[in-house]
Design brief:
Length: about 290
């Protein structure tokens, strides 16, 4: 028994040394999909939270003998995980940061895989009067001028970055009791906005998945091209992390006709409509 324990300890130490040699300290998996020996990790937010990643990961695992470790993180945190070599790949919506990562050489394979859009939701009575706004910036300016309750994730996620871009377009630095920073994920912040009857900018995918649960919110503003939200993959450079090769194969799958069909149709059986658009649709909004 002692020899077995010693061997187990040595095996664990060897695994840690291998990971250390890559500079790789993987965050805990939020969930895992598949049960194969070819393991890789992926950080993302809504695609995991809403179940799309599970469908993609399990379908991929059937043919590739993989285990996908999903690390739940917004776009900003996902980018940091990739830069620090803590995950093999990411799915994010932060175009400027993505391009910079590729230019700096610590990310590769920036591939467009789909899109959704942002909605500004709020109480049906619309105390800030944003229903007739022409742009997202105008809608935000109305919220600030009326000091209507507004919820912000405040977490450097893609959603938070887009929100801050809108405030910048409106020449406003939001602050005060009306501006509530949650430091939480999309779903949790949306549910809090509903409970407290405030405004919030949510992605369309999350909204469609929980709209029946929303008692105090409705869509008040949508349609500004500025609010279209494109998703890209980013991958570690070759050899940078242990699961890079499997992650690269997963990107091939997600961008293939099979993967794209899954993305375009996901949610139809549950919600009556798909909650993501495929890459072909997203092309016209890609930046």
């Amino acid at each position: 028994m002692k020899s077995k324990a010693a061997l187990g300890a040595l095996a664990g130490l060897f695994a840690l040394l291998v990971l250390a040699s890559y500079g790789f300290a993987q965050p805990a998996c939020t969930e895992s999909y598949g049960a194969g020996p070819n393991k890789f990790s992926l950080a993302t937010g809504s695609p995991g939270e809403l179940g799309l990643l599970k469908v993609l990961g399990e379908q991929f695992a059937q043919k590739n003998n993989t285990t996908l470790c999903w690390v739940k993180a917004g776009s900003g945190e996902s980018m940091k995980f990739l830069k620090d070599k803590q995950v093999d790949m990411i799915m994010v919506h932060a175009p400027a940061a993505e391009k910079k990562a590729v230019e700096e050489g610590w990310a590769t394979r920036r591939i467009l895989i789909g899109s959704n859009e942002f909605y500004i939701v709020g109480p049906p009575e619309d105390p800030a009067g944003i229903k007739n706004a022409k742009t997202a910036a105008e809608a935000y300016a109305l919220v600030a001028n009326r000091k209507s309750k507004f919820f912000s994730r405040g977490d450097n996620s893609g959603t938070h970055k887009k929100e801050m871009d809108a405030w910048e377009k409106a020449n406003i630095k939001p602050a005060g009791d009306w501006y509530i920073v949650t430091k939480d994920f999309m779903m949790a912040t949306l549910k809090r906005a509903d409970a407290e009857k405030g405004y919030f900018m949510t992605d369309s995918s999350t909204w469609v998945s929980v709209r029946k649960e929303m008692k105090n919110l409705t869509i008040l503003f949508r349609g500004d091209v500025f609010l279209v939200n494109t998703y890209h993959t980013l991958l570690q450079p070759e050899g940078a992390t242990p699961g890079q090769k499997s992650a690269a194969q997963f990107i091939d799958f997600v961008s293939s006709a099979e993967g794209q069909k899954i993305i375009a149709t996901y949610g139809k059986d549950l919600y009556g409509e798909g909650i993501y658009n495929d890459a072909e649709y997203a092309k016209k909004y890609d930046r």
